[in-house]
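Continued from yesterday's entry.
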Amino acid sequence: MLSADCLFAHQSSGQRSISIDEYANKIFFSNIFIKAKTYKKEFYVGEPIVVEYELYVNDKIILTEVLDEKAPEFNDALVEEEDIGTLRYTYETIRGEVFRKALIRKYVVISTKEGIFDIPELSLKINASLEYSPEFPTDERYYSRINTYSSEKIQVNVKPILEADETYIGAVGNFSINSLIGRDTVSVGRNFEFVIEIIGSGNLYLINAPKLKLPNFLQIVGEPNVVDSIKIKNGIFGKRTFVYAIKALKEGNFVVPEQLVSYFDPQKKKFVSLKTQPHNIEAIDTDEIEQSHGIESRQSDYLSWILVVLGLLALLALIYLLRKINSGSEGNLSEKEINTQPKQNITDEIRNFSNSSREIVLDFLFKSIMEALVNKLHLKKDELSVEKIRGKMIEKKFDNNIIDKVVNYLNELKRLRFYKIDEQIDIEVLKERGIEIIEKIERGKKNN
């Protein structure tokens, strides 16, 4: 197929012979091409569409280099690109010829409009070489050519979702639901956490917070915080978590009732209902909780003093044994230089930190806030999630205003860092907010 045998084929009278350049171009364009593909041709609004772009190269052609690439531009859609890792070639026979093919780009696309949706082209500017056959009148061994190759545009049909009721949360895919409550004994007038998790595959980024239906004596405080744990692999998988702040308005034993939500399943072509389990809570007066915490605190203090005394006794015994074994070593130890220069505090580190990378700055600010929280709250490794930090600060009786500022700031840093958002960031303003929050954390429980 790639032979030049037909180059000098007889042509009808009046037609010119095809040139070497024209013939080589025909060979390149018919034997290097890019295909865009989806796994079906009809989707629903909000349903993730997996789009793949594959490069095909006839096995007799040598790819020297890719000089440029024009990525596809999707309109009226949310787009996530999947990391496909290292380029891997497989082989496929087309028209009796062997082709190498490789997946070069993969996207998960969510159309936000119904109707015909265009899958845009992807283009590569490629320098490729073709070995001459003996019939070519040249002394060179290879014929090289730089061309731009583009995928053909394809279209899919995006259908509307109709007849959604008030329980619909905008979810399209396949999901399950779970609910959690921070504690079963709460203080009247103080916030406690109620968590709803939506788990599964589909348009997780577009799922709205369920509208809670609660009895009159339970009140929602503010908007729920959203926490995502999502991965892109042949679609969108993971969990979207909504953390609600709720407070009880009176004492008593109450039930946080089951909550009903619905999503659209594109495979079944219908809405599916989910519901949470009910949760029992006891709301008691603040003074009772304070008294209970006071007893626990005194017990904890008593145990801590015992541990301190035992630790000191063990340390004294160790020093005595070391002196017995290594007499005279104290002089050597006293001559060792110890670096006692105070470490730069966290707020000064933030003020002095400078970097042009958005990701590095956001990571540094997040690390700095977490370091201040770890120092102040004595957090363990399993207590570093935003939800558990909130619970720990409530337990330590921090002012609600400080708690909200800390949680909102951490969630904003995560959103800016991990979601593909093109908004401009004022780094200096973010740094100043971080410094203000750290100073409030270090001052303690009062909201100054």
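--- second protein ---
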Amino acid sequence: MNINKLSFFNYTTNNNTASKSETSVNFKGKRNKTVTPPVYKDRIYPAGDLFLMAKKDVKKPELIIDEFYASENSRMLKNPLGVSLSRFSPKDKYEILQYAEDIKLHRSGFSKIINAKNDDKTYRFATGEALTLFFDAGDKIEKYPDEFKRILNEKDSDGNPRFNSKDCSLLMQYIALSKLYPQAYSAVLAMKNLRAEDVINIMLNDGEIIEENPELLDGVKQLLTQKENANNNTKQLNSILKKLYIQKRTKIAEEKAQERAKEEALLLEKRQKQKEELARIEEERRIKNEAAAKIRAEKRAIKNAEEKKIKEAKMQEWNQKVGWIPPEQLFDKVNTAVNNKTPLILETGEVLPDETRDKIAYYINRSAGKSQKIINARYKNLQPIFNEKDCCEILSDFDSYFYPQYMSSLKSVRRDGTPVFSAEQCKELLKLKQNYRDEVINSYLLSTYRNFSAEDIVDIMKNSDVTIRYDSPFRNLIIQKNESGQYRYSVRECIELSRKQLEENK
């Protein structure tokens, strides 16, 4: 089986982009995180089923999954992000492209994230980590690329990368602290055994003290650099620094005690203002993101409305061309004719026998839901499968048709947009009572070892007792070729030979 020739052209996939990840952090030793992964709905043919179907045919069926995602990615705009995704697998690219509109807002920040590497040239962040980090701090990374690089380059005492994706997100969200207190930030960040939360907590509580009195940090460095029990050590830092600060001020002069008290009051006030400023910045970011989301939603609504209008116009054009009428109109016409005992006249002017009219009325009143599915059935190019006369023919003998709710394979179209199966062929296939009709038909439509015509597939399905049977020689016969590379037998000949061999083996 040649994987490169496998086509997903006849599949239709509807993707609904999920809500993006949002992360909020409270610097009291806890992080609250809500991440909602993308949701993919209503695939006509799930990738998992493809994988199971391919197990017997290929050595590496996982390549079909890769091609599935590659096919889905090709439906989207070519590299809509302005960012190279070459390092990602088709599945990872597919996940990333669900957030294309958001990534475009800060594409430089996203590029910095996905291209970050370890010392051994491997990429630093996996797909999920990269997306979470982007939604948490992509704007900050775009604005402060050097600070992001600085954080990535930090190593712990063992020489390993110090911060994971969550730590990087936390530090970048509060990167403004490095601008407020650059020396203090550098000094605290240099203490290799501090966690990201510890760095932020220290900067929020003591950043200004350390910035103005860097020598005070020497008195507590040993405490902070102790690898064991580092969390408890950082909890003691605030009180220790304050004590050292007060001692220093006391040594200068006792008479400055009142002034010192005023300065501490101002310091506390300034800290509060800084926290309020950070809160204001975060609120502005939230408002900005909400405004951007609203604009995107409005654009999507306009686009959907335009697409719906185009689709309705196309359907109306097909309705007139094929001679199709909606179920409600047909039901009303039939019931009126029955109640008034008048002939049932089609839109073409053809008059149906009263016996046919009464049978139609019986079935549409007994099975209205299934009747509607037959009438509403359309090919993937929006063309109705059955015209008014076809529908009446089916409804007048409805018990001869099976599983009208499972017609996805019958709706297939060719590359040029024309239907694979004619209305008559669809009626023949609907008369076959097979639970897995769609799956079997699709397996032949997507076959990579032989191209089957619509007539071939109908013939195969009508002779399922020899074509689908497990021990039938049919599947071996249809792949046999002669010396010139042509198939040895037609599908009809394969069916007849299979039947003959099975009868001989009885």
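The two ends are 32 Å apart (CA to CA). The CA atoms of residues 240 and 373 lie 77 Å apart. Will compare against the first tomorrow.
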